[in-house]
Amino acid sequence: MLPVDRRAFLRQLFLLAGAASMPALLTACGTDSGTSTPASRIQGPRPAGRFANLGPLGEPNAFGVRLPAGYDMRVVAEALKPVGDSGYPWHIFPDGGGVMAKPDGGWFYISNSEVPGFGTLGFTVPQLAPLANPLERLVPGLGGASAIEFDRDGNIVDAFQILSGTTFNCAGCVTPWQTWLSCEEIPEGLVWECDPVGRSAAVSRPTLGLFSHEAVAIDSNRRVIYMTEDMPDGRLYRWLPAAGDWPSGSRPALANGRLQVMDVPTSVEKALLEPQRVVWRDALEPTKAQNEHRRADSAAFNGGEGIWLFDDFIFFATKGDNRIWVYDIRGETLEVLYDLATDSNPILSGVDNITVTDRGDVLVAEDGGDMQVVVILPDGQLKPLLQIVGQDQSEVAGIAFSPDGRRLYFTSDRGSNQSVGGQRVGLGVTYELMLPN
Prior knowledge:
By secondary structure, the protein is mostly beta strands. Helix content is about 5%, strand content about 35%. The protein has 4 helices and 27 strands. It has helices spanning about 5-15, 120, 130-140, 290-295, and strands at about 65, 70-80, 95-100, 105-115, 145-150, 155-165, 170-175, 180-185, 190-195, 205, 215-220, 225-230, 235-240, 255-265, 275, 280, 305-310, 315-320, 325-330, 335-340, 350-355, 360-365, 370-375, 380-390, 395-400, 405-410, 430-435.
């Protein structure tokens, strides 16, 4: 079987592994393993993807976004402007995001801000230097992460900051114990654990390593945390708790543990052809910067981006080579699921944030590329769900579903709701896509 055909088959095999029994749409960073039926034992017709009947994209709407027929959208937040009636000015450069359900049927949409913490770190990126002082006056504690609170009908109730003074916060993860992990993408970056309602101060978790963090996925059944690293020679990491740090069925302390790095002793590139066995090796100096704890006998991945746990598989994206990888937790093997250079339908490029539906559709947001969110259906087809037009200097990020699955949040991190000369160049917009019933 040719590699491309094999990957098409694997999409169906892996993505359907848990589809038969998962009850709700996923709003965190994956489902716990061990709760669903492996695809090899599914009997009868395999379930169709949530987006199996997705039609072609129409012309750009008033927001400059192309949607399929039957879909609608709105802007829920724009950089430096108050969110709803909250009076809270939304952060600039909104990046990774997640949704956390509330007991009353409402939810929080949590979003990272991919900018430096000006006041705390005392530096700016060159293009932001002229803006640093006025931005600090407008938005004290620039950077970090913010949350928008919605009621059960989708109305905006409030908005507020839950993390400030941190640097280049990219993606993260809604935890099973109802916190937000926000990742700093700098060489000595930390993971910060945040209270989604902002009552408690965020806490750094250095046990999860100091490196250019991008995203997190949590397997709470096995008590393992997986993390990507956004560097041209980045690694895939996992964290195992020290004895007593994560009691079964409880919230982990995230105080002490083992940081490990994936190695593929044969070759990472051979994973394009067939599954490759992996080995996990302890990091050398887990609480020191990445160039000190990285070891030579570990696998390099070109720009680690989004990561998601689906049943017994870890999916993650690498932007540098435009690939979607899958790590089989039970089999301890690694394989390429999508590769732009060899796929028969190469419409997905600039792969970045990932989310997965209850039916096994993998949604991938593009950083660059065609500025699309592309769906990889359970049967292996690729279809665009939406496309942002006229914001080519931006990226799509922050994709996350509301708990009922009727709304999809996404951001254009350098987009604007205002068109200037046919282009929408700004400091970031957060949108809500309404799916047809």
